[in-house]
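Complex record, two chains
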Amino acid sequence: MKVRRAGGVTATERGRALALIVLLCLLMLAAISAVALGTTTMPFSTIISAIFQYDGSRNHLLVTTIRLPRVIAALLAGSALAVSGAIMQAVTNNPLASPGLLGINAGAAFAVVMAMTFFGTGTSDVYLLYAFLGAGTAALVVFTLGSLGAIGHSPLGLVLAGAIVATFLTSLTTAVLIFDESTLDAVRLWTAGSVTGRTMVQARTVAPALLVGLVAAFLVGRHLTTLSLGADASRTLGQNPIVWRGASVVVVILLAGSAVALAGPIGFVGLVVPHVVRMLVGIDYRWVLPFCALGGALLVVVSDMAGRLVFGSQSFPVGVTVALVGAPFFLYLAHTRLKGAA
Amino acid sequence: MAADCEHKAKISGKHIDLTYGKRRIVETLDLDVPEGRFTALIGPNGSGKSTILRAYAGLMKPSSGSILLDGRDLTDLSTGEVARKVGVLLQGPVAPEGLTVGDLVQQGRYPHRSLFSRWSAADQQACDEALTLTGTMDISDRLLDSLSGGQRQRAWIAMTLAQQGEVLLLDEPTTYLDLEHQIELMNLIKTLVDKHGKTVVAVLHDINQAARYATHIVMLKDGNVIAAGRPDNVISAKTVADVFKVKTLVIRDPVAGTPLCVPL
């Protein structure tokens, strides 16, 4: 608060804006490195010419069809997962909430497995649509169940309904997979969360929904802070918590649904990035969300690059490396912050 | 039960029934809150005090009857309109980790801002006043988690003051506070009523505290008003025995001159 005046900005706000710009620069640096580094190291000039003066050479082909789509998928999925995780935590007043709690992952997995079993293992572009529809349908069912009756007035209803629907769908998915080994093989990599072999077409397919979700998230940011005070406080401040919870769930469906369709259920990002951000910039969601978008993207891009470079495998799933990179960093931060507070 | 004749009713419950599921807590209750006074709701556990407060805050709809705020039915008002008139502090509010006092008080401006409006000079002034009045200006940068119970309670009250409503509803605001902070808070409420013309309704556990600070007392038992009015008229050995099932001697508080219950 300090010396905040109408229309003006405080020193804290200027610092946050600066930190956001630094984070953006870091992210760009990481993204360019991820395109440049690999079995063949690509100079910056080659990347630029591949994008703007494409000549069909092997290197240009590598940039435009393999590395760039992969990095874009990582950027999109990372930012969407972190932002939707932050929103879920605010909406449910539960610091351990993640988009998976809405049944997003279970719904997407169920839809993808069903599609594979009944329509055969077709092109991955088709799964994108099934995953998004499955995620969205499951989340809507969870929100409707969680808003009914007496439990609907507390966020606990949402958490309970989410756990029930997710468990139910996961059981069905497992049952199908037990009898269908070819589908099991096909979805194994998908369930770990991976951006391997993503195409520009796929990225372009989910990008509109995802970007609309991001803009909407930034617009509802301030209302999330009020919502995070709890349903009673929110209502006595003149907010309709059910309406804003509903709006937030729609944003989460757009974001997490797109992310899971594009990259599978990458865990950890949606849980840990918001925590790290809140430790560093506080609870004001107008700031938390932009930091989450950049931080989540950075984590996934760096993790995927590290997976490729360190393990030397193109198909090493980023869902695994994210946790390997993220967990120690989170522990370090939590440890130093707690020590600082004591 | 009619309120003091000289004060018109700010909030008025007319034959209200309040139910949780199938359990009826309050039945055909009439309860007026006099304008510009400090009303204390007292009664044993389960007498319906908190439920009535929730209903008057618009958090719970009466299953029958109506609650009027300035003569208008609460159900006809939007949550925003209610929030611009009534500030509410419920028991044991929990703020998310990482919230500062200043952040919390700013939330009090929520009902005054349109969907995407910017922070205005009026918003800032309301927050500054609320912080000054509650003596929390110096700690506005501190995290709520790091504060003592008394400071935290004042921060929440500052948030409700930033709403700039004419009414404050407080559910057991002094519970869990030590004596010093209890007195500090009661004096703050008294100032808000006497100097700033607020109408305050507080659920209080301590009869003697209510008698000393409140100007209007409503004594409740099983969802019914047993007595309402000035402390002198409400608190007697008979009403206390009836409501709290405790035999007491009611004497005069040697300092404030208000009724003082001493259990026998």
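Note: Chain A touches chain B at residues 1-2, 4-7, 90, 93, 95, 150, 219, 225-226, 228-230, 232-233, 235-240, 278-279, 282-284 (CB under 8 Å).
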